[in-house]
Amino acid sequence: MSSIDRATYSVSESALDSMVLEKAEFPEQFQGHQIIREGTLDNETLAANGFEGSTAERFKLAGRVTGVMRELGPTSNMVLSDGFDFMAASVVHLFDSPDSVHGWMHEIFLKDFEDRVGESVGQGHQLVSTTRLQPTGFFDEAVGLKVLQGGVDGLISSTVVDFRVGRLLGVVFIGVTGDHDRLEQVIQLGQSLEKRMVSVVLGSM
Questions:
Q1: Of 104, 158, 160, 202, whose CB has the highest number of CB atoms within 10 Å?
Q2: Which long-range contacts (CB under 8 A, 24 or more apart) does 39-42 make?
Q3: pTM for this one?
Q4: Is 58's pLDDT higher than 70?
């Protein structure tokens, strides 16, 4: 086990609050957006906002303890034209072990999305396709997906990257109107989040 893995065992749940990115740390194009959701993301809340059939019990069995998020979205005067980056988020999840983080990335994050292609995902949206991405430049394991959803207003795409820091999972995504890939920007966002997570971890030793 690496020293950073070991260090994440001394991280308390309250330390997660200072790990998610502040609004000012998001890319320039999001500075005019508003914070639409932030704060603690426990297993119950995550299940309620997840795919149909998600349960807090399943997430708990997967080793997930809790998490914290901050999500930015458009203000009412923004025009959601094709190619517009309307949403971005950073999330930090705490697990019971680094192995649980690995399991979550593959068995829950990637698998749940890939298994749901063609299904309704709520709010009148259907999951059209998922494409696996190869995020690079992270300290440890990282996986990515481009998710395409369709609804009455047309297509929206989300580029999502999950990466591991010991028993912590960092998640970043950017949502775009239309069919667009934002891997480069999401990797940069993820690296900012990773840097912040590591500095908090090392500060808690």
A1: 160
A2: 39/68, 39/69, 40/66, 40/67, 40/68, 41/66, 41/67, 41/68, 41/69, 41/91, 41/93, 42/66, 42/67
A3: 0.96
A4: yes
